[in-house]
Amino acid sequence: MAAAKLLKNTRDKKMVAFKFNMFVFLAIVASMTFCSSAMEHMVGDDSGWVIPENPDFYTDWAANKTFTVGDTLVFDFYTGLHDVTPVIKEDYDSCSVTVPGTTIKTGPATLNLYIPGDHYFICSVEGHCLFNQKLAIYVVDNDSSN
Known about the structure:
By secondary structure, this protein is of the alpha/beta class.
């Protein structure tokens, strides 16, 4: 009888410990989810990174979004048809690449946003930027003091 009571107390304590540990684990996972503000932005949403029919398509797409340090941009395009090239503002405006940088030719391409401020991207395939396959965004600093 004493052995059965001891066994029951041990199982009860283990169950309480298990439930407590699960609660703590779930609380940690939940806090990580809420504390992590990094977002993945699919450029152009379902349309992807293409020559847009509407000249303001990418401007309109970016207008209702907040881009934060730590976020990523995903440029979804077919390899061989498009590319994505980060450029300076002057190259964005003129649709040229005068400052050599990294052109990503394999799609989909994921770019991490590490630096706050203005960022510019174009498709450097001949004529594509002139047909408004370009994106300008502003990245805000990730204020971790909140």
